[in-house]
Amino acid sequence: MIRMECDYSEGAHPWILQRLLDTNLEQSPGYGTDGYCDRARELIRSACHAPQAAVEFLVGGTQANATVIAASLRPYQGAVCADTGHIHVHETGAVEAAGHKILPLPSLDGKLLPQDLEQLCAAHFADPSREHMVQPGMVYLSHPTECGTLYTRQELEEIRKVCDRWSLPLFIDGARCGYGLAAEGADVDLPDLARLAHVFTIGGTKVGALFGEAVVMPDPGLLPDFRYMIKRHGGMLAKGRLLGIQFETLFEDDLYRQLGRHAVELAGQIRAALQRQGIPQRFPTTANQIFAVFTPEQRARLEESFLFSFWEGLPDGRVVLRICTSWATSAGDVDALCAALAEL
Amino acid sequence: MIRMECDYSEGAHPWILQRLLDTNLEQSPGYGTDGYCDRARELIRSACHAPQAAVEFLVGGTQANATVIAASLRPYQGAVCADTGHIHVHETGAVEAAGHKILPLPSLDGKLLPQDLEQLCAAHFADPSREHMVQPGMVYLSHPTECGTLYTRQELEEIRKVCDRWSLPLFIDGARCGYGLAAEGADVDLPDLARLAHVFTIGGTKVGALFGEAVVMPDPGLLPDFRYMIKRHGGMLAKGRLLGIQFETLFEDDLYRQLGRHAVELAGQIRAALQRQGIPQRFPTTANQIFAVFTPEQRARLEESFLFSFWEGLPDGRVVLRICTSWATSAGDVDALCAALAEL
Amino acid sequence: MIRMECDYSEGAHPWILQRLLDTNLEQSPGYGTDGYCDRARELIRSACHAPQAAVEFLVGGTQANATVIAASLRPYQGAVCADTGHIHVHETGAVEAAGHKILPLPSLDGKLLPQDLEQLCAAHFADPSREHMVQPGMVYLSHPTECGTLYTRQELEEIRKVCDRWSLPLFIDGARCGYGLAAEGADVDLPDLARLAHVFTIGGTKVGALFGEAVVMPDPGLLPDFRYMIKRHGGMLAKGRLLGIQFETLFEDDLYRQLGRHAVELAGQIRAALQRQGIPQRFPTTANQIFAVFTPEQRARLEESFLFSFWEGLPDGRVVLRICTSWATSAGDVDALCAALAEL
Amino acid sequence: MIRMECDYSEGAHPWILQRLLDTNLEQSPGYGTDGYCDRARELIRSACHAPQAAVEFLVGGTQANATVIAASLRPYQGAVCADTGHIHVHETGAVEAAGHKILPLPSLDGKLLPQDLEQLCAAHFADPSREHMVQPGMVYLSHPTECGTLYTRQELEEIRKVCDRWSLPLFIDGARCGYGLAAEGADVDLPDLARLAHVFTIGGTKVGALFGEAVVMPDPGLLPDFRYMIKRHGGMLAKGRLLGIQFETLFEDDLYRQLGRHAVELAGQIRAALQRQGIPQRFPTTANQIFAVFTPEQRARLEESFLFSFWEGLPDGRVVLRICTSWATSAGDVDALCAALAEL
Q: Above 0.95 for ipTM, yes or no?
């Protein structure tokens, strides 16, 4: 059975494991204050063209999201996001656990629309009863989105304009940003994220690391005492260097970008195979995720050999299955899938 | 500079890294539902003589403590602990972040006394104004304690009796339990923990793993839906098998116990060297931590070559420094320290 | 200017003030443990045919809702409600402040549909990834709803059936229940609420009291230690007897029911006047709230003499205004409004 | 039985009830936006010599404390207070419910010492591991204290100096400040509170009102959006004018001060009677609370006719009982008590 249901089925890129081996018995201070973390921070600042950025490393995505949001909001404020947003749908209320409501907006292919955001804010601040409602306090979006789609640079700029108008920090969840950066036709790069987001994450877990997300704050004064927040949320890894070593490896020699390209190229082959068969896709994706619409018969045939993730059933009986490639997907597995698709 | 200031300065036992390498490109389901986690659960159940136990793996200690406590209490309840307890002093309010007060009791050498616990509970439940106070809802203790000391089996039994009398679950934080089990004269073993605690942790981070704490609930019905709580607290590792692989390795072939013995033996050599020099110890420890009382001159001499952790200053100008051994401490480093002590 | 924009513009029914005067210098114990509270509890138990019910008095509605919900849920659970629900829209995140997500369902005229509730629960508990989502933990509805409508007895029975199937407590917010009980054709009475809800409130603030909501739990074992929760949420009134005296007055001599009938009769006159003019109503209400659809010109004319509350603008330029009657509305004011409507 | 166990056994000063009666059927907007609240704000600003102050009215003390503290702190910060502080001991964890640890300091007669505060802050901010600990984020004290004692102006000035040095807002809980202002030899007046506290409360519940606490922020920009916080904490009274009317009455014609003086004078008579009998007092109080040390025999005799509140048992078998006077205490009751004391 070939697993293509997510992008975290394997361990880590071999270079990362090798580096962990090489440094294993070195002694270092804990909690992210070691030299590896410092060097990884420097590499990330450089890749983002954000020389002053504060960079912290957390173990996982839910933890990173919840910590950033809790650190950014006042108690009576909420985080605006697309109604498909990960924080809204798939984090078991981790944001609410810190006391904050999520304010979902309708989404288009997983993306937040600037006009909806503008309308929400304008309506809130014009409402004489607004003290009875949760105040919009920040904006969360993911790039790529939950639907595998990407914002264009212009879309992000327009969202940022609305954020500025209402003094809302913009938080971009980049759990899969490695695949977004490498997507065909992508016009958003790390320096764009650093310019357009007040805080964003660069995901390691899904892009070659064992685990780990880098939280980047281009203005280092954005969240003073953020490290207290990490500890309070249980996210301060004792052997913090494990995160430093991994991100150092990913951001040396362009590895992070290479891993992204690898997955995106293989996804492109799958997309082409789907198109050849006339199999529709639910969302117009260009990065590493594909949401293909199969008939029950097609699904049954494919699931004899492949594992995908169920996304939704359509009214006509067809199903949407998510197919993921990753840094670890082999060309052979993709060839096998393309062959299977050709036989449908 | 030889680091002996804590027990998490190095990476992981080589067998663990090897196992991570061996399994690296295998594909597995996420979030702790893989075969490695299942096998690790089975090995832990067996080591604890708790065949029905629910076992979950979390990344770190603060996370494990906060999640267990939040899962155990009703909102108006607090966790009773020693005033030196890690949750009270060194977790940046992670328990309070979930809405719970900590109810500290005076401690003796880091240990909670059953009579204090009894008195607190008796006083609370007899107080006609008790609804104006936080209700004791569970008991937290660590074994070994923050002061490196160990409870005797009888002490734990007496505490458990008080817990039973007041219907309080007993939670034992075993972040360093590997060293406690191996301590000289220790009479508390894993099956004792499983018999006496309602829930306890077995620490990996400080005892040979890269990271990871096993949460063990001998009665699997104790905290239904505990996995929702893990996710809500940001503690559900995507590549959960990393935890399974590590704990599987630690609990095969008695590795966990061997690592504990190694550290304890080396700590014993340091204790003997201190005694030979007449250097007092602040707490009567028998596991891997030593709290030695040095004069400023002694401290300065030692700190030319060794890194310890500062514990407290005494009124007479002397200082208490914590010396830790671990699974990774080398005999050579301990010899060097003993030689340095002999020259004081 | 005649205020009809809400049902809490005046003070209290004169009998209540008189009773406060009569008892003013009596001395009583605090925090709801006095004889007035006890007697009010007894009267409410009797009116509800719930002889065992636990009854507590809180100052306000948001406080009552947040306290009941926080007391009812486990941390990873959420409260299901209509997307128009007061807790979701107009309580500034008081439920989220206690760490709980609200799970809104589409509503029809402000009412929750049992089939939507069933579907949500069935989908959640069938989802293999459910641990990544907030678990439905209780159901909240208001009667009358935010849209002024009423559930029929059968509708409540069907919702309760779904609740029972999924073991969800049903919480009915009766902030305006006095008007609901008295509505034309209403077939839900207090004993129905006590039979169908696990916990419900009887609102005083909007129905003749200065302030105060009674929380009724027909099964007194439902929320043990609920009074700790009241205190924790800042809702335990020092001079608790103020609440007891008010509810005692309301539930003696059928006053609560009379006040409800008064408002409902006057609302009926306004509804008739609207119908005579062919002015549509946004929701089919029968209690004390009317949501009338006016043209801008009509609105301008009316607002020269009357204060209503703005509900929403319609695409065609018309506006929905909420008109409320209450226990304190005078027949003269309603006559004036009917006359003004007749002149439109 | 004469109740002297607390200062909230009766209703309200007759002038307040009369004013409620007089205004009962007036219509006013809700939630504290009415003219009575505005006028009460103006009277309080004037009494405090704080012409710009923001003033909000909340129903109760626990609510006011929890709301102010939650509005003032960042999530990783705690509130420093005396270990006897009401928020620490008698509010069922309302502060922790908002996610904040309380950092208690040893107290002398219920008072916080500036040097302890300085030491706590200096130690925290000098500690390289401070990110693992809750950061001191504000200072809470009550005046009068839980032990009935008063800070001198100089003591408050010294505490404020420490607060300024560490940028900590100072919050003074004035639940009983009416009695503190009127105490014999008191040198702290409302303008002092307004000058020395960043935020303070003026208690109505215990000083002549039915209920209500005024929260005063001399700098109106201190807590922007504080009213959202009030709503979120369930503290926004629908008929907010009830609070406005009460505080207007208290601050017109010097009533608040008169009520304070009345209670303090009667307390002085009781203190004199105790001294004549050689009955010691546990704390050196000068306002409306007395903590008298009785033998069991004395206690039994007194409790035949009087109700006091039990404070603590002493090792020698004697007990400390709290005796309270209030605005409502009658001279006759005090005479009776003095006579009873004289017969001991």
A: yes
